[in-house]
Amino acid sequence: MERYIVIIAGSKSDNDLVSLARELLERHKIPHKVYFISSHRNLDKLVKTVREETKSGAGVFIAIAGLAAHLSGVIAACTNLPVIGVPKDAGSLGGIDALFSMVQMPKGVPVATMGIGKHGLYNSIIYALQILALTGDEWKEKLVAVKDEFNK
């Protein structure tokens, strides 16, 4: 089964970060899927999507969300795959509230949380590749290529 990265953003207002992720993933021919699903406004669709992607070959989930940022916790509650949270620099607190929401998950709902904004997004992709690199050389090569790009 071909593995891939799933990016789920809480709303279209997160498209600035999603676009950066897509550009990087497409440039390196990294298989991925992208969804915009709010955990607040469309919980049933989110749960269904996460469960379907878990069965279909997803390897890692990246959740991008601002403000309260419950998205990553809902995803983590619906799958046993790794979930990486990326807080968006939004709202009156500049993403601090999203960061706190992601790092304070209850026992049994793990979310690896990156820094706020663009750098956190890029680190989430590297971390996802590090996880997937455990499964084979193809992923190791992609990881090296992405890290090399950032080290130039």
The proportion of residues in beta strands is 15-25%
Output the radius of gyration.
14 Å
The strands making up the biggest β-sheet line up spatially as 2-1-3-4-5
Envelope shape: globular
* Overall residue-averaged pLDDT value: 92
CATH topology grouping: Rossmann fold
- Fraction of residues in helices? 40-55%
Number of DSSP helical runs: 6
Tell me the number of strands. Answer: 5
Please describe the structure with a list of short key phrases separated by commas or semicolons.
152 residues; alpha/beta; Rossmann fold; five-stranded parallel sheet; 5 strands; 17% strand; globular
Characterise the protein shown here:
The protein has 152 residues and is of the alpha/beta class. The chain has a single domain, classed as Rossmann fold (3-Layer(aba) Sandwich). α1 packs across α5 and α5 runs antiparallel to α6. The termini are far apart.
